[in-house]
Amino acid sequence: MTQASHADIQAFFHKHGIRDVECLFPDVTGYPRGKLMPATSFAAGAELRIAQAIPMQCVTGDYSYDPVFPDADPDIRLVPDYSTLKLAPWSSVPRAFAIHDCMELDGTHCAFAPRSVLKEVVARYTAQGLTPVVAPEIEFYLTAPCTDPAQALTAPVARNGRAEAGQSAFSMNMLNELSAFWDAFRSTLDGLGIQADTWIHEVGTTQYEINLLHGDPVQVADQAFLFKYAAKEVAIAHGLNAVFMAKPIAGAPGSSMHLHQSVVDSSGRNIFSGDDGKETLAFAHFIAGLQTYVPDMTLLYAPHVNSYRRFVKGSQAPINLEWGYDNRTTGLRIPLSGPAARRVENRIAGADANPYLAIAASLASGLAGMGENLEPSVPLPAGANGYAMEYALARSFLPALEALQNSAASRRLLGDKFVTAYTAVKELEYDSYLSEISAWERRFLLPQV
């Protein structure tokens, strides 16, 4: 429903008995926020407003008021993207939802709304007659409900009456053990129009990966956003917990969100491949842009203190921005493919990253590399181990925060207001984290210091 008239929407609502509409938008974390509106008001095009600071709400529920967020906290408008209007399968009564853009009252995009940031980056490609293409691979865990945050997550009891034990990568039996969830989840994704490719059991106990099909970056980010929303809702309905933390379980594999990226011109030709099928300079420049600008933007790919536990040697999670062909030890992997499918896989982002912001940061870096004719490093030779190279990513949250705060390049590529607002939020979250005492401190420091 890309262009929707009042009559079209009313007919859709009448057909399905819709009473209310979830007017959603992704906040800085990628969490769904918004308002519930009567279906009649939505169909009539009623104006919907929300406080300007809400898109930058901390995971703690706090707000950072600074020069970007005036004390007056003015309104912004929520403007529906009618192409996203669908039935809400997680609702117990007939309900619809639509993803909204956050717009200033003067009609411009809110500078710190994640969907706006991605749209601005994509617009730069469009201005050059180019179209970026993205496909994410999303990993997550299914666990038993977590009623006490002080306790570790545990695997749920499956249909065989036992909790999964050990590692069962690519096991069909283990994928089938929670078949009631998967049947409902697959039906939900189909209803949402989310185009999933393959479904696998990953290395971790009750860890899974689903690949989304490649497409327009904003549409793909919308699908990733709804994928997480739906996974959590369907999991709860089945007595489970869908976990997208980067490192939810100590000693277990982390969860990533690998981003496959290519760029096509106005004729649909992949600009990473020449007429002879060989790599182009644009391909090399794109890789160089990632190598140059991703380090300053690490906080967008690893947005939480927990995120940095994932960057472990030998775990198929990256520690640097080396690149190579079909090499999963590198931060930038080039899958083996034909010329039309030549692409760059950015393996830095965790499953906890906001898909809009991770995609925006990656595409902005690649476009800058092409525009500045940057040169990449020499690719690692076949069979080389990226973990033998030096760390090139921040080892913890605070260095990543400081790098983004002080990065003129990131402010140029993503917007000064956005970077100021984002880092203010992350600084507040870090202060909250420091206020809690961990089990490690009680276990070792209490008896020995």
Which stretches are poorly predicted, pLDDT < 50 over at least 5 residues? none
Main sheet characteristics: 8 strands, mixed
- How many distinct domains? 2
Q: What is the structural class?
A: alpha+beta
**Bulk shape:** globular
Topology:
Layout: H1 6-16, E1 20-26, E2 32-38, H2 39-43, E3 49-51, E4 75-80, E5 86-87, E6 95-103, H3 114-127, E7 131-143, H4 172-176, H5 179-192, E8 196-201, E9 207-212, H6 217-237, E10 241-243, E11 257-264, H7 281-293, H8 298-301, E12 323-325, E13 332-334, E14 344-346, H9 355-371, H10 397-405, H11 408-414, H12 416-434, H13 439-448
Parallel strand pairs: 1-6, 12-13
Antiparallel strand pairs: 1-2, 3-4, 4-6, 5-6, 7-9, 7-10, 7-11, 8-9, 11-14, 13-14
Helix pairs in contact: 3-9, 5-6, 6-9, 7-9, 10-12, 11-12
Question: What does this 3D model show about the protein?
Answer:
The protein has 449 residues and is α+β, with helices and mostly antiparallel strands. It folds into 2 domains: 6-110, Glutamine synthetase, N-terminal domain (Ubiquitin-like (UB roll)); 122-411, Glutamine synthetase/guanido kinase, catalytic domain (Creatine Kinase, Chain A, domain 2). Helix content is 33%, strand content 18%. It has helices at residues 6-16, 39-43, 114-127, 172-176, 179-192, 217-237, 281-293, 298-301, 355-371, 397-405, 408-414, 416-434, 439-448; strands at residues 20-26, 32-38, 49-51, 75-80, 86-87, 95-103, 131-143, 196-201, 207-212, 241-243, 257-264, 323-325, 332-334, 344-346. The strands form 2 sheets. Strands 7, 8, 9, 10, 11, 12, 13 and 14 form an 8-stranded mixed β-sheet that branches. Strands 1, 2, 3, 4, 5 and 6 form a 6-stranded mixed β-sheet that branches. Strand 5 and strand 6 form a beta hairpin. Helix 6 (217-237) packs antiparallel against helix 9 and helix 10 (397-405) runs antiparallel to helix 12.
